[in-house]
Amino acid sequence: MAENLWKQMEDWEEELDQINWKQMLEEIDRALMDNLAAELGFPSFERLEEASLAVKDDFHVTHLSDGRWVWWSPTAYAKEDPLYFSDKPSIVRYISEMLGLDEGKRAHLERGLSQLPQMSRCDCCEHEFNPRDPERMHWDSRGEQRRFCSAQCAAEVLLGEMREDLSGWKE
């Protein structure tokens, strides 16, 4: 019995030695970033980053579709939730106080935030998206599909509407 237990312990240690801890930690970090993006309403961390303004170090600001501003950091996310602000003056005041900005840097921050587009929410998948994203021009060159984040979402809704129309049609 003791031999069997000893063998199990050796097998367990060998399995532990085979684990790629660096890869595992990278996967955990990736999952945390995707969770942060989902919490803020984005389909991926990359989309969240693209929609945000880096303010200092690893701290970012995003202007959500509902008008709120959010202050977040991927490195602090495991310990701190994103902070939400109801309007631009509130977030400017918070960042200015936190970073100890003088009037010149505060004005620079305000100009930067003024250039940050407000996101829209997709009527299909309900993800946040940048309505000014240049990639949108590939599938919505005339700007007629402002309700959707992608051609796939626009097509999905259109097909659903067509199905509804056809199901009500009788000969």
Keywords for this entry:
171 residues; two-stranded antiparallel ribbon; 4-stranded antiparallel β-sheet; 6 strands; 49% helix; alpha+beta
Strand order of the largest sheet: 1-2-3-4
Strand content: 5-15%
Could you report the average pLDDT, rounded to the nearest whole number?
87
Query: Compute the gyration radius: what is it?
Result: 23 Å
* Class inferred from helices and paired strands: alpha+beta
N- to C-terminal separation?
A: 78 Å
Order of helices and strands: HHHEEEEHHEEH
Number of strands: 6
Largest sheet properties: 4 strands, antiparallel
Helicity range of the residues? 40-55%
Approximate shape: flat
Poorly predicted regions: none
Task: Determine the number of helices (DSSP H or I, runs of at least 4 residues).
Answer: 6
Explained architecture:
It is a single chain. Strand 5 and strand 6 (about 130) form a beta hairpin. The mean pLDDT is about 85. About 15% of the residues are buried. The protein is α+β, with helices and mostly antiparallel strands and about 170 residues long. Helix content is about 50%, strand content about 10%. The strands form 2 sheets. It has a 4-stranded antiparallel β-sheet with strand order 1-2-3-4.
At a glance:
It contains 6 helices and 6 strands; from the N terminus they run αααββββααββα.
